[in-house]
Sequence to fold (914 residues):
Amino acid sequence: MRTKDLGKPLSRAVTVFFCSAFLLLFLRDFKWQGLALAVAVPMLNVLTTNLLPKLFPSDKLLLSLTNFLCALGILVLYDTNPSYAYAQAVYYFIGLVAMVICIYIIRLIRSFRFLVWPMMLAALALLVLPLLIGKETFGAKNWFYVGSVSVQPSEVVKLVLVIALARFMADRRMFPWLFFSAGCLGILMLQKDLGTALLYFFTTILLFYASSGNLALTGIGLAAGAGAAVAGYHMFAHVKRRVAIWQNPWSDYDNAGYQIIHSLMAIASGGLFGVGLGLGSPKTIPVYHTDFIFSVICEQFGLIFGCCVLLMYVALIWRGAAIAMATRTSFHGLLAMGITILLGLQTFVIIGGVLKLIPLTGVTMPFVSYGGTSLVSSLCLIGLLQGVASLNEDNLKEDLRLATME
Amino acid sequence: MRPSHCVFRSQSVPAAPCSFSRPLCWEVLSIKQQRFRFKLLAFVLFGLFALLAVYGVYSINTYGNRWFAYARNPRVRAQKQNVTAGSIYDRNGILLASTVDGKRVYQPDEASRRAVVHIIGDSEGQVSNGVEGFQTAYLYGFKSSLLERLGYLFSDTPRRGDDVHLSLDSVLCTEITGYFAANPLTRGKNGAAVVLNYKTGEVIASVSLSAFDPMNMGSVPAGSEVYWNRVTQSLYPPGSTFKVITTAAALENIPNITTMNITCNGGLDVDGQAIRDYGNATHTSLTLKQAFTKSCNNIYALLALDMGDATLRKTAESFGFNANFLFRDFVVENSVYPTGTRSRFEVAMSGFGQSSIGATPMHLCLVAAAIANDGVMMEPTLLTKTTTPTGAIRDTFGPKVYRTALSPQTAGTLQQYMRAVVTGGTGTRASVDGLIICGKTGSAESSRKGRDVTHGLFIGYIDSDELPYAVCVVVEDIVDGEGGGSTAAPIAGEIFKYIRDHKESFTH
Fold:
């Protein structure tokens, strides 16, 4: 059995798991919304994994993994705060549509050689907006409102970042991506959005290494980043505070350490096997719906399931790297790898923060955390990845056709 | 003909020459080299995720119980509404805490309640990490199996937690508070006493004064000093009791130290600051054993300066100073031996346990226990077993080695020295007929609320295979001119006497 064929059994497991899980929660309060989600969420999974491969060749395993993670987020949100779950389900649907559009974009626009410039300009403009009209939440000023919908531009700019990096690195042009990346980092620093800045920085550096293989310059880049981190630590009080909380959250239970302590208590309460879906006190964890959603998962399903969720991300990275390695052009290879690195690092940064392995920086857990912009942009990234995968399959078919023609 | 499987449809830019827009040109990577790097990066990411999983499992395994039992865990508060807490029993089956009609009830006699209140804890969680708080996982039924929980779901009886059985002798605890009250020098003083079996680590008594009545707490404000468990939470300067560690360091690092004569001229100037013996006593030329028995500060200051800070710190750390205590049954404040560069005066003071060195009575008791147990420090334990509501055994707990603190040879020499302290030195008042008692006294200076105070300390043990017990007694803020030998040592003596007279309950 080829590894890609694991997609089908996984997709079936996802359907059964989430159908029964939502039904279980439905039995708790007999609200029709529970029943609706029990039908709708598995249905979206069935539809995407069955319909998309008919439209263009796609990676079914990657699709099933994505669906699993999105559905897990909606499930946990439905248990803790149903109104978030409804919104998240709607964004899930919008995200899937956006994903299909992204697949088409990759299939139609092959080079981005001219389009990347206006995209970069628009991205920088978008990124500056929160500084002008944004609202400050949890010490970071990285949101603004369009009507009643909150938008986090740094999530959207991720798409432009990976495309721009891949384009210019494939062309071996240094200045454009260097300035774009530095510009994004500068703006993010001004917004005090350290987590995202960290993410952008490491994605850029690692992708540079993949494209050039130049260890010396990669090292210099990392050293510069470390220097900036040390300077930032001494210059900004909020960075110092973050590190202090990470080192000893127990010293200041009521204020600074409150979040992480509640996260750790929740994970410890779950133990290996969890307290069970719908049980426990996940709502006592601060910001349980975004930053600390992994703690909720660990409390309810246990550490073993938590490790399985990590395994799902590992499988996702593996598919992403496999797609990147099967590409025929440098641009598509770097694009696929950039997306993989970005998603992988983002997951590591937030789960590491929740477990107190590294200082907590407020980035979302891809696909799972509550947040429309984040979910849609993550699904768009998967769309770009699927687009590259479909091109790979097309190339393979073309090879076979040529080979059999002789 | 089979075509090459690599058909590059739009292979991008060929190796470009250096120009202004390409200031740094590197070799063009072949698609193969690029694939290799992708693979490498994927493995880097896998490594990060493996790190997450390993760290997650490790930290829950190591700290999970502590995080869960943290007094402010809202889950425990929620469970208290639905589950009747289990009972707590001492080593002789005396009921220390139980739930009657939904209310937590402690022993009927007030003096007995007050004697064990810190180690048992209180139902309102004012004492941190008493059994009531730290063992919530058992007491409130978080350890019940799925089958048991289902059983409760289909029955009318309210859910009940597990019973916890301790190695503690609650009568001895009550007696110890009496020993404090009996002596005018210690009456009304704050202090701490802890007794444990040095072969198994089982704690049989732990008393912290001043205490409060857990069934009548209205009058005491939250956060008050009486809620502190001084045995595990208070860091005291160990004073001369630290000399056992300085001696261990000297025995292991200075050749022929046992046969050497060291001169004590009654005072020592280190960088312009004077070190005096307690009560300005002067000694003449002494061997190490005599210096230990008479507790001569000058000689210990000289020893510390001779060995240097690093050597002394290393020995202290092998005894558990600066270690992160993660005991199963106790949360013990970590002991401190200062790190970093220090002045010669501070190093000299360290030789006799002053200058920012701090240890809890529990840890000092472990130091004595390690010497008594030929260098092996056992982990202090309190739980012997837990039982389910139906009386079946849930878990039993055995002894665990914590660390090897010193070599058996050094421990043997120290045992002789500590014996000499009780037979003809500063600790004679701890001696008991019919038992071989060994020990070390200490008078530690510290400042509290801007006032210099002296604490009396005694650490010691019974040299016996039948009654292997070690104690630490601390009496705070003793009268001027008194020391550990006249305040703490007599209490230790009374404790040893009690153990001798109740042999049958301590030998099983």
